[in-house]
Design a protein that fits this description.
globular; 17% helix; alpha/beta; seven-stranded mixed sheet; nine-stranded mixed sheet; 35% strand; Purple Acid Phosphatase, chain A, domain 2
Amino acid sequence: MKHQHFICDQSFVLLAQRAVFWVEESCLIISDLHLGKSHHFRKSGVGIPKTGDYKNLSIIKGLIEIWQPQKLLFLGDLFHSEANHHVMEVKEFFDKYPNIHRHLVVGNHDIMDISWYDLLGLTIHKETFQCGPFLFSHEPLENLENGSELYNICGHIHPAVRLVGKGRQSITLPCFYFSEKQAILPAFGKFTGNFRIKPTTNDQVFAIANQSIVVL
C-alpha cells in the first residue's frame, strides 16, 4: 500500500493511490488530477463514466482522513479545461477541511480565470514553489545540474514503466521516478494516459500495481 522513501534527509511516503505524503511538512502531494476530463471526453462522444471525478475526490478524502495533512499541494493540472463544471463541487469538498492550507503550482491545463482558484482558497504558484530543499513544479525542470542545490519534484509527463515477464509478456504500470536531481510523480487522475520512461542504472523506480508499491 505504501513505501517510505528518503530525499535530502526528508521522509516521503509513496502511496499506491498515486500520491505522496511528506512527513516533516505534513503535506499531501498530488499531481495531474485533471478534474473534468471525463466530461471533456463525453462531450467528444467518448463513453466515459460520470463517476470518475467523484471517485478521485473520494480517494483524496480517504487519504486526508488517514494522514491528517496540514497542507495539500497540487503539482499542476488540477482541472482539465477552462469550461469546467466541477469547481463548485471541489469548493464544497475543500470547505470540509478549512484548516488545511492548499497550494497549486500552475500546470498547462490550469487555464481558468484566477478568480475561480481564489474561490477555492488556493495559494497559486505560477511556475515553481520552493519549500525546504525542494523546488516543486508542474513540468520537469531542465539544467538542474548547473549549481542548484534544490531537488525538483514535479509531474506532467504521467510516468510509467514497462515490465517484461519470463514468457515475454509485458505490462506498463504508472510509477514514481527518482533520479539524482529530480522526482516525477504519477498522474493521480483517471483517463490521463502515460509516458513510458527509460530509467538509467542510478535511477530509482517504484511501480504501482494492484494497490501496491513495487520496488524495481
